[in-house]
Amino acid sequence: MGLPEISIIFSSLAVSAIQRSQRGIVALILKDDTGTFDTKEYKSVSEVQSSDWTATNLQYIKDAFLGTPSKVIVERIDAAATDYNEAHTRLASKRWNYLAIPGISPADAATVATQVKTWRDVNKKTFKAVLPNIDADHEGIINFATEGKVKGVAEPFTASQYTARIAGILAGLPLTRSSTYYVLPEVEAIQESSDPDADIDAGKLILINDGEKIKIARGVNSLTTTTTDKGADWKKIKIIEGHDLWMEDVRRTFEEHYVGKVNNSYDNQVLFITAVNAYSRSLEGTVLDPAAENKVGVDVEAQRLAWESIGTDTSTWDDQKVKEMTFQSFVFLAGGLKFLDAVEDLQMKIHV
């Protein structure tokens, strides 16, 4: 495995990054007894057979496609199902970006949120979910919290019923823009928030009426508790989408072209590091901030600790020696990335 091959792979991923980001995949879980199948995958709304679904569920699928995702995966479960575990099992091994379960109850939403957190935090998946009115405090959960009415439809929609539309929007947006002020032309009226700023600070994705258009107030997820590891920028859907794109590209390339196929020598680690850093540079200006360093390298501290954990004295090793002393099958890397946010706020001082 030489540098040119892995560099070509990363270069191709960088070139297609924005295109891929705006063609994400929506996963829907729908309760429906019309058919007996488990899963349907659609690349366009024209592929959907109305005879497979109730009128309500058919509309949810159409709502998701309004946001132009690349695909909509629909997991069907029986109308009498008491949980979503069967659908979760099927979705766990598939590739998708945003999950919605229109019509989900508050209790079930909490259970699904826990599952998504586990997928992200434990299994390192890049799954995200749009759930209604849930205080999840997590970057992988979008807490949609607005009710309203669609033009030409008699009954108003609940936040739960509209999650498919929101998931479709988020899956179809490129990383060059955020969902902030995204206009929903089909919405006629909404139950307006009494304090939009407070709702946004509370991690709610809400709709607002600017007097002319109804639009998303700010593209935030449900995260409200920040730490040294998860700063304020982790509250932004756009930022997390960038994190997920970078991590998925690097991890998949490593798994497909390095794991089990390359000796764990320092030279081979350097080849991989060089390729990753070239990939990151290719994303600068679109996904990553070109003013930042955006580099990874051998995690000297972690590698030193690994050797010391088996009783090796590393006190005489300088940092370069530690880097060269690869440890078993592990590749310890560390670094820093700065993801670009969208322009959303203006502060201007005018003196006259």
Automatic annotation (TrEMBL):
The lineage of its organism: Bacteria, Bacillati, Bacillota, Bacilli, Bacillales. Residues 80-221 form the Tail sheath protein subtilisin-like domain. Pfam families: Phage_sheath_1, Phage_sheath_1C. Gene3D superfamilies: 3.30.1370.220, 3.40.50.11790. It comes from Brevibacillus composti. This is Phage tail sheath subtilisin-like domain-containing protein. Signal peptide: none annotated. It comes from the Bacteria. Belongs to the myoviridae tail sheath protein family. Residues 229-285 form the Tail sheath protein C-terminal domain.
